[in-house]
Design brief:
The chain is an alpha+beta fold and 545 residues long.
């Protein structure tokens, strides 16, 4: 209320200044073209009074409270100035008498009905008083020189008309103002309720831990909530207006949207979403018809969730189940094969130690010995899957261990002249609580896989660094790369990309890393190589003074 009253007072002051300036220009023009000039035109005093009162009102509006007495003071001041104009220029012949109802009307806008009626009465009294004082000879006639000559009935009629005009303006203005005020209050209340509902709606929608977008009947995206922006890695402004199947895949074209929204069996699906940056994501999507009263098919509601981590955990569970099955099978193989295999190898070695063996038989015995040893190594790998970790672990500086392993790799038969092995290690120490031999085994399996993926040569980048309390080993090759399905299966047993491999190397790597409390992730793009990252908990080492 106080803010609207202050705004009304400012408008009143502005209109007063405009009218006074206009009157000043008119008075100056009249004097300029008039043949009979007065020494000092009294209108100038009234105009000066208007400017002075306006200045005082501006200061009062800025520094004084409450505002209602200021509204009365401004309107009363205006009525006094109008009375002065009527006295100077003539009240019956000239039109300044019409300013009384105009001023009262402005009061009805600023004040309530009682105040505006009071000011209407005051305006009538001021006008009647000015006429009576001139007619009684108390004041010189000035512009009201004809008042003493007029009959009393004419003067009373003029006062009556002025009073009726003032009270009518006060009444009509008050009624309209009250109606507008009530309508404004209802509108403000309704706007507040709408704003509250809108804020509550946005709060609810943005609090949902699922992506949510709405489309029109043609499948164009209209809205995307904040959680959906974080999943899709794109702002809602960039998505608005695009077709939903351009974003989430061809399974959600307009025909498919209608079919899925109309059938509960087809409403849910899983899609692969290609993010603008980073690896693709697996999304679980559900489609519902978005209907409004009178428009049964106005659009669609698409709810989606990021299932990438869930898929990874499911794949991890499947890998563990496979490893458990491999472990059980390895125990059976150990019982059924190990003893006969040892007998075969031992017998072949005894025969090799004898004399007079033909060269052809000696070669065959060596083949038997070599193949028995290879089969024994394979069996030992199976046994590793079934045997629980029993070796003690201690602090191991992976920087030193990997430095030695990289040196051996560079001089080994796996690295040809077309291969390059690069090793980058930041400032250590890189100490983990681990088994040294198993850490070497992890590196050799990852390095050999990388080299096998580059039969025509290429660069194998090995990097060791510290990050957020972990030691991170990354091995990146420039080989053939892998698709998403192959990446998901790569840590399972018997998943080998080489025709000569057993498919157990990465399964062993996965088990060693998990038993050491670490994590292993793979990023690969077909035709652009594969990067494997191993994270192991780092042991804090105090810095020597």
């Amino acid at each position: 209320m106080e803010t609207s009253l202050a705004l009304g007072l400012r408008k009143l002051m502005l209109s007063r200044v405009v009218m006074a300036t206009t009157l000043l220009l008119i008075a100056a023009y009249v004097e300029a073209v008039s043949e009979t000039l007065r020494a000092v035109n009294p209108i100038y005093f009234l105009i000066g009074a208007v400017y002075l009162l306006t200045l005082l009102h501006v200061l009062a509006l800025r520094f004084l409270r409450p505002l209602e007495p200021q509204a009365y003071a401004q309107v009363v001041g205006d009525l006094l100035v109008i009375t002065g104009l009527v006295y100077v220029t003539g009240g019956i012949r000239f039109g300044f008498i019409l300013l009384y109802p105009v001023s009262v009307l402005s009061a009805s806008v600023l004040l309530r009905r009682r105040g505006s009626l009071f000011l209407a009465g005051l305006a009538t009294l001021l006008y009647a008083g000015a006429l009576w004082l001139v007619r009684a000879g108390v004041l010189p006639p000035e512009g009201l020189a004809d008042v003493p000559l007029l009959p009393t009935k004419a003067i009373l009629y003029s006062v009556f008309v002025t009073g009726v005009a003032c009270f009518t303006a006060a009444t009509i203005g008050s009624v309209l103002t009250e109606s507008l005020r009530r309508a404004g209050e209802k509108l403000e209340e309704a706007a507040g309720q709408v704003a509250d509902l809108r804020e509550l709606n946005e709060l609810i929608v943005n609090s949902i831990q699922s992506g949510l977008l709405t489309t029109d009947s043609a499948g164009r995206i209209l809205y995307l909530n904040a959680f959906g922006e974080s999943i899709l890695k794109q702002p809602a402004s960039a998505m608005r207006g695009r077709l939903v199947h351009e974003v989430l895949g061809s399974h959600l074209d307009p025909v498919a949207l209608r079919a899925r929204a109309g059938s509960p069996a087809l409403a849910r699906l899983e899609v692969e979403y290609a993010r603008p940056e980073g690896p693709p994501a697996d999304l679980g999507v559900s489609v519902t018809r978005l209907a409004t009263p009178g428009r049964p098919a106005s659009g669609y509601l698409v709810v989606f969730q990021d299932l990438t981590e869930i898929k990874r955990l499911e794949e991890e569970v499947r890998v563990r189940e496979k490893l458990a099955a491999v472990g059980e099978m390895a125990a059976q193989l150990a019982h059924e094969i190990r003893n006969p295999l040892g007998s075969i190898s031992g017998s072949a070695q005894v025969l090799l130690g004898g004399e007079g063996i033909p060269a052809e038989h000696e070669d065959l015995l060596r083949i038997i010995t070599r193949e028995s040893r290879r089969l024994s190594d394979t069996l030992n790998r199976f046994l590793f899957q079934a045997r629980p970790p029993g070796r003690q672990r201690g602090p191991v500086d992976l920087g030193r261990v990997l430095g030695e392993a990289v040196t051996l790799l560079r001089n080994g038969p796996e690295v040809s002249e077309r291969h390059e092995v690069a090793f980058d290690c930041d400032e250590g120490p890189h100490v983990c609580l681990a088994d040294r031999d198993q850490m070497v085994q992890v590196f050799w399996n990852l390095a050999r896989n990388g080299l096998e993926a580059m039969p025509g040569g290429g660069r194998l980048a090995v990097r060791l660094r510290r990050s957020d309390g972990d030691v991170v080993l990354s091995v990146h090759d420039e080989g053939r790369g892998m698709g998403r399905d192959e990446q998901r299966r790569m840590f399972g047993p018997f998943q080998s990309g080489s025709p000569m491999g057993t498919g157990l190397g990465l399964a062993i790597v996965y088990r060693i890393v998990r038993e050491h409390g670490g994590d292993i992730t793979v990023r690969s793009t077909p035709g652009r190589g594969t990067g494997v990252e191993v994270r192991l908990p780092r042991v804090p080492v105090p810095v020597e003074a």
